[in-house]
Design a protein that fits this description.
Blueprint lengths: L9 E6 L5 H9 L17 E7 L3 E7 L7 H13 L6 E7 L5 H12 L4 E6 L8 H11 L3 E3 L8 H11 L20 E5 L13 H12 L3 E5 L4 H7 L6 E4 L4 H7 L6 E3 H9 L2 H7 L11 E5 L11 H14 L4 E5 L14 E4 L7 H13 L4 E3 H8 L3 H12 L5
Length: 407
């Protein structure tokens, strides 16, 4: 399963083998997406499918292997099923034939420990309806919706979709504004976007596009230029921008070119505030100054991409941190949502990218082990601003907006 490449809300379907998880997905999508068979264990690895849900919009459904799989290979499949908990926003537990025992109870404990909302479907009601006593016990113990359903007849499919919509956390599909609370009607926002070896051919990167749309959604005016044209912009353009947003890698140049009275920040910092744990980033960033020789730094990328000779996460950030600290640091990079190769306590600092390609829950879950272990976490943009001595300026727009001191 390709992970960490889609920022839509994610829904995981869980249950025992042959409970009709794949049939449920086919019913929800209206297509024969998932392979359906009477043979238990037909679904072996988690499988993703995009879907449109009224009231939510585009979403991703993940079909998982049975939680009652057996044997060495079955245990590996169950392990992959449990890994899905880290990347989804909502879980649906499918039971059938009134079977509810330790496999389901263990999975619900996993849902709870991951702060994951869920509801339950008793499938195959055309063969056997749920017993009132079992329904009462489940509702009283877990206080979640429980639907009797048949993926064959789909008579109450609208009710299932309605419960999905009601159970999905709003944070999964209602996005916090990037700049709407920082600008007013007709304000000019200047975007500084380098076109270099890392810029994709013929297009702009996703954070730049997202910011442009957010400015337009809030009735602002967007001006885009490369870092070399900033001086020309200030000579010929009026009014001056109410906010300047730069690519993190040219932060020092932007800081020198933009008058101090004009707010300046970066795309990465805006994303960190929108979907990351911004307060933890602000607390963790100054720990860069406390790094010592031999400390190991974990760099988390949200997606896989072609690595250039001057890659921001793999080359520039390590170089800047070594130069700033004067220490010999060790760096490890993990792309997408791949497994971290060491114990989290082996790292002195974790640096997360902006996370434009993953959901907020995926990003928060990615950082949770570090936070729980007391490992400082920060973000590309904040770390870059810090090592270049412009950290205070980079977070100033948000201090002013929040009316509080982040330092």
């Amino acid at each position: 399963m390709t992970k960490g490449r889609d920022a839509k809300p994610h829904i995981g379907i869980f249950g025992r083998r042959n409970n009709g998880k794949s049939s449920l997905i086919n019913a929800l999508t209206g297509q024969d997406i998932a392979i359906v068979s009477d043979i238990p264990g037909t679904t072996t690895d988690p499988v993703k499918k995009s879907i449109e849900i009224a009231g939510i919009g585009p979403a991703v459904i993940i079909d998982t292997a049975g939680i009652d799989d057996s044997g060495d290979l079955g245990l590996k499949r169950i392990g992959k099923t449990r890994e899905v908990l880290k990347i989804i926003d909502l879980a649906i537990l499918v039971i059938s034939h009134n079977e509810f025992d330790e496999p389901e109870k263990n999975l619900i404990r996993d849902f709870t420990s991951n702060d994951l909302p869920f509801f339950m479907i008793h499938n195959k009601s055309d063969e056997e309806r749920i017993k009132p006593e079992l329904a009462r016990v489940i509702r009283e113990k877990y206080d979640v919706p429980l639907l009797d359903f048949s993926a064959i007849h789909t008579l109450n499919l609208d009710e299932v979709v309605s419960v999905i919509r009601e159970s999905m956390p709003e944070t999964a599909f209602l996005k916090k504004t990037l700049v709407g609370d920082l600008i007013r009607y007709s304000d000019v926002v200047l975007l500084i976007t380098p076109i270099d070896i890392e810029a994709p051919e013929g297009r702009m990167i996703l954070p730049q596009v997202q910011v442009i749309r957010d400015v337009l959604d809030h009735d602002g005016i967007v001006v885009v230029c490369k870092e070399r044209e900033v001086d020309a912009f200030f000579r010929i353009m009026n009014p001056k921008p109410a906010l300047v947003i730069t690519d993190s890698q040219v932060f020092p140049k932007a800081d020198a070119a933009i008058p101090q009275e004009i707010p300046l920040t970066s795309f990465s910092i805006l994303l960190a505030r929108q979907k990351g744990d911004f307060d933890s980033y602000l607390k963790g960033t100054p720990h860069i100054s406390k790094l010592r020789n031999g400390d190991r730094v974990l760099i988390l990328e949200s997606c896989t991409h072609h690595v250039s000779c001057d890659d921001i996460g793999r080359v520039k950030i390590p170089r800047w941190l070594n130069n700033f600290t004067g220490k010999k640091l060790e760096f490890e990079v993990v792309a997408g949502l791949d497994k971290i190769p060491r114990l989290i306590t082996d790292y002195a600092l974790v640096i997360q990218c902006g996370g434009c390609m993953i959901t907020r829950r995926q990003l928060i879950s990615r950082l949770k082990p570090a936070k729980d272990a007391g490992i400082p976490v920060t973000n590309y943009g904040l770390a870059i601003a810090y090592v270049h001595g412009i950290y205070d300026r980079a977070i100033r727009p948000f201090r002013k907006q929040a009316g509080e001191d982040y330092l």
